[in-house]
Amino acid sequence: MAATSGRVLVVDDSEVIRRLIKVNLELEGFEVVTAADGAECLEVVRGVAPDVVTLDVMMPRLDGLRTAARLRAAWETAHLPIAIVSACTPADLERGESVGVDGYLAKPFDPADLIELVHRLRAMDRPVAPGARRFAYDFGGAGLDRTERSFALGEHVQELVPPDESRP
Predict the structure, then answer these.
(1) Axis-axis angle for helices 15-27, 111-123 (nearest 10)
(2) pLDDT of residue 91
(3) Any idea what the Cα angle at residue 96 is, between residues 92 and 102, rounded to 5°?
(4) Tens-place pLDDT, residues 65-77
(5) How far is Cα 94 from Cα 84, in angstroms, rounded to an integer?
(6) Which of 17, 76, 126, 161 is the most buried (most CB within 10 A)?
(7) Contact yes or no for 64/87 (Cβ under 8 A)
(8) How many CB atoms lie within 10 A of CB 41?
(9) Is residue 159 assigned to a domain?
(10) Mean pLDDT to the nearest integer, 123-131
(11) Which residues pair with 52 in a beta bridge?
(12) Model confidence at 3, in pLDDT bands (50, 70, 90)?
Protein backbone atom coordinates (compact mmCIF):
# COMPACT_ATOMS: atom_id res chain seq x y z
CA MET A 1 0.00 0.00 0.00
CA ALA A 2 1.32 3.43 -0.96
CA ALA A 3 2.04 5.93 1.78
CA THR A 4 -0.68 8.49 2.18
CA SER A 5 -0.32 12.24 2.50
CA GLY A 6 -2.95 12.28 5.23
CA ARG A 7 -6.65 11.71 5.72
CA VAL A 8 -9.28 14.16 4.48
CA LEU A 9 -12.95 14.18 5.45
CA VAL A 10 -14.91 15.61 2.51
CA VAL A 11 -18.42 16.82 3.36
CA ASP A 12 -20.79 17.76 0.52
CA ASP A 13 -24.40 16.91 -0.25
CA SER A 14 -23.60 16.41 -3.95
CA GLU A 15 -22.41 12.89 -4.67
CA VAL A 16 -20.77 14.11 -7.88
CA ILE A 17 -18.73 16.75 -6.03
CA ARG A 18 -17.76 14.26 -3.30
CA ARG A 19 -16.49 11.84 -5.96
CA LEU A 20 -14.65 14.59 -7.85
CA ILE A 21 -12.86 15.75 -4.70
CA LYS A 22 -12.19 12.18 -3.57
CA VAL A 23 -10.64 11.09 -6.88
CA ASN A 24 -8.40 14.15 -7.12
CA LEU A 25 -7.16 13.86 -3.54
CA GLU A 26 -6.61 10.10 -3.79
CA LEU A 27 -4.50 10.63 -6.92
CA GLU A 28 -2.36 12.93 -4.77
CA GLY A 29 -1.94 10.20 -2.12
CA PHE A 30 -4.56 11.29 0.40
CA GLU A 31 -6.93 8.86 2.08
CA VAL A 32 -10.44 10.28 1.68
CA VAL A 33 -13.56 9.66 3.74
CA THR A 34 -16.82 11.31 2.74
CA ALA A 35 -20.01 12.49 4.42
CA ALA A 36 -23.22 13.77 2.79
CA ASP A 37 -23.93 16.59 5.26
CA GLY A 38 -22.83 18.22 8.48
CA ALA A 39 -24.80 15.86 10.70
CA GLU A 40 -23.08 12.84 9.16
CA CYS A 41 -19.73 14.63 9.47
CA LEU A 42 -20.23 15.05 13.21
CA GLU A 43 -21.20 11.37 13.53
CA VAL A 44 -18.04 10.07 11.82
CA VAL A 45 -15.33 12.68 12.49
CA ARG A 46 -13.99 11.23 15.74
CA GLY A 47 -13.82 7.68 14.39
CA VAL A 48 -12.20 8.80 11.15
CA ALA A 49 -9.61 11.13 12.77
CA PRO A 50 -9.04 13.28 9.67
CA ASP A 51 -6.10 15.61 9.18
CA VAL A 52 -8.25 18.08 7.20
CA VAL A 53 -12.01 18.64 6.79
CA THR A 54 -13.59 20.24 3.71
CA LEU A 55 -17.17 21.49 4.00
CA ASP A 56 -19.78 22.67 1.53
CA VAL A 57 -21.93 25.48 2.94
CA MET A 58 -25.44 24.66 1.72
CA MET A 59 -26.33 21.15 2.90
CA PRO A 60 -29.43 19.52 4.39
CA ARG A 61 -29.81 18.79 8.12
CA LEU A 62 -26.72 20.78 9.19
CA ASP A 63 -24.97 23.30 6.95
CA GLY A 64 -21.22 23.68 6.64
CA LEU A 65 -20.85 26.81 8.76
CA ARG A 66 -22.78 25.37 11.70
CA THR A 67 -20.78 22.16 11.29
CA ALA A 68 -17.52 24.15 11.42
CA ALA A 69 -18.71 25.93 14.58
CA ARG A 70 -19.52 22.61 16.23
CA LEU A 71 -16.16 21.15 15.24
CA ARG A 72 -14.40 24.18 16.78
CA ALA A 73 -16.53 23.95 19.96
CA ALA A 74 -15.54 20.34 20.75
CA TRP A 75 -12.05 19.94 22.23
CA GLU A 76 -11.50 16.68 20.28
CA THR A 77 -11.94 18.43 16.93
CA ALA A 78 -11.07 22.07 17.70
CA HIS A 79 -7.59 21.65 16.20
CA LEU A 80 -8.73 20.30 12.81
CA PRO A 81 -7.93 22.46 9.79
CA ILE A 82 -11.25 23.26 8.07
CA ALA A 83 -11.83 24.57 4.55
CA ILE A 84 -15.04 25.70 2.92
CA VAL A 85 -15.28 24.35 -0.64
CA SER A 86 -18.42 26.05 -1.88
CA ALA A 87 -19.95 28.91 -3.82
CA CYS A 88 -20.26 31.40 -0.97
CA THR A 89 -21.56 34.88 -0.41
CA PRO A 90 -19.43 37.50 1.34
CA ALA A 91 -21.62 37.00 4.42
CA ASP A 92 -20.86 33.26 4.36
CA LEU A 93 -17.14 34.01 4.29
CA GLU A 94 -17.42 36.39 7.23
CA ARG A 95 -19.39 33.80 9.19
CA GLY A 96 -16.85 31.15 8.20
CA GLU A 97 -13.96 33.23 9.44
CA SER A 98 -15.82 34.02 12.67
CA VAL A 99 -16.40 30.32 13.44
CA GLY A 100 -12.79 29.38 12.71
CA VAL A 101 -12.67 28.21 9.10
CA ASP A 102 -9.07 28.14 7.88
CA GLY A 103 -9.52 28.37 4.12
CA TYR A 104 -11.94 28.82 1.26
CA LEU A 105 -12.08 27.48 -2.28
CA ALA A 106 -14.80 28.70 -4.63
CA LYS A 107 -16.84 26.29 -6.75
CA PRO A 108 -16.26 25.62 -9.56
CA PHE A 109 -12.60 25.01 -8.75
CA ASP A 110 -9.49 23.78 -10.47
CA PRO A 111 -8.43 20.41 -8.97
CA ALA A 112 -4.87 21.75 -8.64
CA ASP A 113 -6.19 24.53 -6.37
CA LEU A 114 -8.02 21.94 -4.26
CA ILE A 115 -4.84 19.91 -3.83
CA GLU A 116 -2.84 23.03 -2.97
CA LEU A 117 -5.46 24.05 -0.39
CA VAL A 118 -5.38 20.65 1.31
CA HIS A 119 -1.58 20.58 1.35
CA ARG A 120 -1.49 24.06 2.91
CA LEU A 121 -4.05 23.09 5.53
CA ARG A 122 -2.18 19.88 6.26
CA ALA A 123 1.05 21.80 6.82
CA MET A 124 -0.58 24.47 8.96
CA ASP A 125 0.03 24.52 12.70
CA ARG A 126 -3.29 25.47 14.23
CA PRO A 127 -2.74 28.09 16.95
CA VAL A 128 -4.19 27.42 20.38
CA ALA A 129 -4.36 31.02 21.61
CA PRO A 130 -7.50 32.96 20.64
CA GLY A 131 -6.80 35.78 18.25
CA ALA A 132 -3.61 34.14 16.94
CA ARG A 133 -5.24 32.99 13.70
CA ARG A 134 -3.35 32.11 10.57
CA PHE A 135 -5.21 31.25 7.41
CA ALA A 136 -3.97 28.76 4.85
CA TYR A 137 -5.88 30.85 2.32
CA ASP A 138 -6.72 34.47 2.94
CA PHE A 139 -10.32 35.66 3.11
CA GLY A 140 -9.46 38.91 1.32
CA GLY A 141 -8.44 40.65 4.54
CA ALA A 142 -5.12 41.85 5.87
CA GLY A 143 -2.23 39.51 6.45
CA LEU A 144 -0.94 38.86 2.95
CA ASP A 145 0.19 41.41 0.43
CA ARG A 146 -1.41 41.27 -3.02
CA THR A 147 1.35 39.05 -4.52
CA GLU A 148 1.18 36.53 -1.68
CA ARG A 149 -2.64 36.63 -1.72
CA SER A 150 -2.91 35.89 -5.44
CA PHE A 151 -0.47 32.98 -5.04
CA ALA A 152 -2.29 31.63 -1.99
CA LEU A 153 -5.73 32.03 -3.51
CA GLY A 154 -4.98 30.72 -6.98
CA GLU A 155 -6.98 31.67 -10.06
CA HIS A 156 -10.27 30.07 -9.04
CA VAL A 157 -10.44 31.20 -5.44
CA GLN A 158 -12.37 34.40 -5.10
CA GLU A 159 -11.05 37.38 -3.23
CA LEU A 160 -14.02 39.24 -1.84
CA VAL A 161 -13.96 42.99 -1.38
CA PRO A 162 -16.58 44.51 0.92
CA PRO A 163 -19.05 46.75 -0.97
CA ASP A 164 -17.72 49.94 0.64
CA GLU A 165 -14.17 49.27 -0.62
CA SER A 166 -12.95 49.58 -4.14
CA ARG A 167 -10.62 47.03 -5.67
CA PRO A 168 -7.05 48.44 -5.95
Answers:
(1) 70
(2) 83
(3) 135
(4) 999 999 999 999 9
(5) 12
(6) 17
(7) no
(8) 29
(9) no
(10) 57
(11) 8
(12) low
Alpha-carbon 63 to chain mean position: 14
SS3 11: strand
Residue numbers of the domain that contains 100 = 6-153
Confidence of residue 105 (pLDDT cuts 50, 70, 90): very high
DSSP 39-102: HHHHHHHHHH--SEEEE-SS-SSS-HHHHHHHHHHSTTTTT--EEEES---HHHHHHHHHHT--
Contacts of 91-99 with C-beta under 8 Å, sequence gap 24+, read 92/57, 92/65, 93/139, 93/140, 93/160, 94/139, 95/65, 96/57, 96/65, 96/68, 96/139, 97/135, 97/139, 97/141, 99/65, 99/68, 99/69, 99/72
Is 165 part of a structural domain of the chain?
Answer: no
Distance of CA 128 to the CA centre of its chain: 18
Q: How many domains does the chain have?
A: 1
pTM check: above 0.70 = yes
| Residue 157 CB neighbour total at 10 angstroms | 22
Name the band, by pLDDT with cuts 50, 70 and 90, for residue 161. Answer: very low
CATH number of 53's domain? 3.40.50.2300
Three-class DSSP category at 130: coil
